[in-house]
């Protein structure tokens, strides 16, 4: 069974590009959600192997979504990577303290996104 | 009963008797009585005889007359002689009773004698009767005499005893070892013991320990021989406690068989001892007083001599001192010292007076001292006034201008003292003057410098605090007072570290050893710190930047420090806001760049070669994002330029209605897309404004109103004049703005909903730009809103010179 990735981002263009990037470079199954709440629901129903989570979102920001996910039985163990344009030193410190598996900065190279995800999650090969 | 008088022949017998011997015969047989009588007559004693035949007669007889002798038959009918004897004794009669009996066994006879019968005579041997009677009588006589002698002895003894007992002196009898054999009653009142308490006790045990050895030696020692007498004094313990002085006279009668002891007479001599003691102490006191008085007299004498010598010496010193003093006064050059008589005439002069005033002695002696005053002071009566004050107060002092001989003025420190005779009469004044013109100038210069320094320190925007070597405050400028709430007078002399620098920002105590302010004092190190806290008087803290610099004297020793500090609360807040802004701007710029980079990246890699639809989608994303990026950059730059004052508002008179029309014209296309109607309610009102910028504001507000209104809604623009102000309004029928966002939406990137900017194509800077433009025009901008009932954005501008108030309605 191919790995499944859930992308949560409020920017439609970025969702589309990220999804396309992963699908074109790997055999992964990619699902998307356009808000924190939608993403939390999707995590419970689609059982992804990892979540790419935007930080600056209206209503519920990335850290809030992460905390909710960690408190849920159906999603507590899913590794989460932040995909964010918020990459000042203080931001990175805050994310590290939060306990996310890794941070990928925006803008990103669409050809290297999958490799970066696999590297951060210590997955053996990209094409798996 | 028969009674007969009998008299013996020999009445003149050896024992002289005045009355005849009374004999009572108890005999129930008259014959036997007669026989006894006959026998009695043979004695040489004159007798009278009475006979009783039975108990009744016997009792009557002895009651009537005590018999000298009783002759009693042993056996009587129902009675016997022994019972008669008992009756006799019961009546306390000691008359001898001789039993006369016919037959009595030897044993019974002995028993009768034992029980008190004097003798017994058998009837067949009556011849023995006279002899028995005589013996009985002799016995009785002896008995009576003995009794009489005993009574007399007893009486004598009682007399002695009474004598002893009633004697005020105590008498005690002891044996050789000191055991008490006898003690008199006086013992009780002298020493407090009863005789029973002391009898058999040793006399020495209650003698005062200090007297014990001496008394033992005296009374029990070998030197006290029989027949000798000693007198001594000793202290004896009282029963009630304490000691009593007694005097003892002891007679050694150990060898006198009638006493066989030592007789001690003693008496209480406490009073005598006290009296003696008193006399002794009085004597001692007297002697002491005499000694003291003598010593006093001697000392007084010596003192007097010393005093006389002292006075002579003092007089000599005084004389020398007066001479020296005169020389001194005359020689003093820094002070004008002279004497005035009560009227104010100059009576003496010295070198200083000449130097300071310019007058020589011969010019001034005898003149009124008013010559040292300015003519104005003289006409105001000042010289007289001063002397009057000095006279009443005793002294006068002032610092004032005086005149020299040449008319020039000098600032004088003047002290005038009244000189009084011992009786209190005014004899004149001493007048001492010092020229303090130079000193005053120097003081003024120092004062000016001090004021100048203080003004500088008071004017600076930094808090400045002076510290002494131990870190206590010596100076605290007004800015420091404002920042800390401490007043300079409260802090002066107190430790600044303890009051203001005691705790770190995290609440942990800041120990004085780690205090960098103190390092300036202890190590001479200048410290610049910007990450610590100072604490106000009210207990609140503020982040501070301070510089602590040591102050060194010319020898390079540290004698204090200067602490200059600034409250950096605002700076911190600004830094934080800047940081946040940079973060937000970065994010806002990176978001469209992400899309552009991603879309172009995918296209360039050729991964979409077989999918023209996706390729087109990526190109669209890249284009849209590029446009957005351009808008964003423009807005940011525009805002920054305006806020930094690089863009000046080109204000001119313009028509508010026309401004609204232009804005409507610009936005018409956008409104038509969602069938929104734009209405203008305005009169021709003149405003002073940069028309391009106000159009930009109106366009922005109108754009927002169109974006957030449902299709077919109406957006109304209005303009009204209120006094000097012209108020513009843009009203929509949108969803409304929550109350807590009414203020913040005018800040950068603070849309009600961040996703709005992307959905509605805004940058999140529009309202911030509007506010900046209106503020640069001196106006205000705000929004009033009802959730679900639409919002109205208002702003004001200053009215122009010529405003036409009539209404006019445009329809767009």
Structural write-up:
Chain A is α/β, with parallel strands linked by helices and 128 residues long. Chain A has five helices and five strands, in the order βαβαβαβαβα. The longest helix of chain B is centred in the middle third of the chain and has 62 residues, at 270-331. In chain B, helix 19 (569-604) runs antiparallel to helix 20. Chain B is elongated.
Question: What would the keywords be for this entry?
Answer:
heterodimer, A: 128 residues, alpha/beta, 5-stranded parallel sheet, 5 strands, 41% helix, B: 812 residues, alpha+beta, 6-stranded mixed sheet, 30 strands, elongated, disordered N terminus, disordered C terminus
Question: Gist?
Answer:
The complex is a heterodimer of chains A (128) and B (812). With 128 residues, chain A is an alpha/beta fold.
Name the quaternary structure. Answer: heterodimer
Number of strands of chain B: 30
Radius of gyration computed on alpha carbons of chain A: 13 Å
Q: On the 0-100 scale, what is the average pLDDT of chain B?
A: 85
The global form of chain B is: elongated
Fraction of helical residues of chain A: 40-55%
Residue stretches of chain A low in confidence (pLDDT < 50, at least 5 long) are none
User: Averaging pLDDT over every residue of chain A, what do you get?
Assistant: 89
Strand line-up of the largest beta sheet of chain B: 1-3-2-4-7-8
Q: Rg of chain B to the nearest angstrom?
A: 76 Å
Strand order of the largest sheet of chain A: 2-1-3-4-5
Quickly count the helices of chain B: 24
Number of helices of chain A: 5
Distance between the termini of chain A: 9 Å
